[in-house]
Amino acid sequence: EYEAKRQVEILEDGGEIDQETRLFDASNGTTRSMRSKEEAHDYRYFPDPDLLPLILEQSFVDELAKTLPELPDEKKDRFVKDFGLSQYDASVLVAEQEVAAYFEKAAEKSDPKLAANWVTQELFGALNKDSKTIKESPVSPEHLGELVSLIKDNTISGKIAKDVFADMYVTGKAPSAIVEEKGLKQITDESAIESEIDAVLSSCAEQVEQYKAGNDKVFGFLVGQVMKATKGKANPGLVNQLLKKKLG
After folding, report:
1. 119, 114, 180, 123: which is closest to 148 by C-alpha?
2. What is the pTM of this model?
């Protein structure tokens, strides 16, 4: 940067740039002349007379190009285009070949964007904490993809999924097996949720009156009570929808 400014100043003052090699002095951030060159061609590279020219047939070059693996930039562009990932997430996932391969397997039969979030956040967080690489992951990409699918089809909530993931990381079990063993399936039956809402509204009459008087913040409290009553298994979206309907 210093040298570029120096040369600009010389030209602006009507001077000429000398053909020379300059040495950078790191102690004061300046350059000084080291050796001069009479002409610009003195900088050229000379062919080695002992080496024969290397001539490659275009057909050979084309054949090599066909065998090249997908390069990181190409993979990143494909992740953005085909999977709808952000440039940042795609860049993180293609930084290492093993990570990219893990993600593609996890996203194969699940939601790619959600799978990317689980790989870069929950999985990376757990691996970094234990100083493990993606190759050492106790959670297989197939199992992570299955977990994402369980969230996507509302079998479990995102909150419960974190508990399931923690269990998967320790045991290596499939998420569906953990959900079945611990009875963690999300409650999506409206009548069952309405029943819990009615019980909460009955026991929280004071908060109900506060909400109807205009205190909207109480709504969050009531949602929390319903989720607590269902041990976090009620579908949060349905809870919000049905609770608003009940409160009028």
Report:
1. 114
2. 0.67
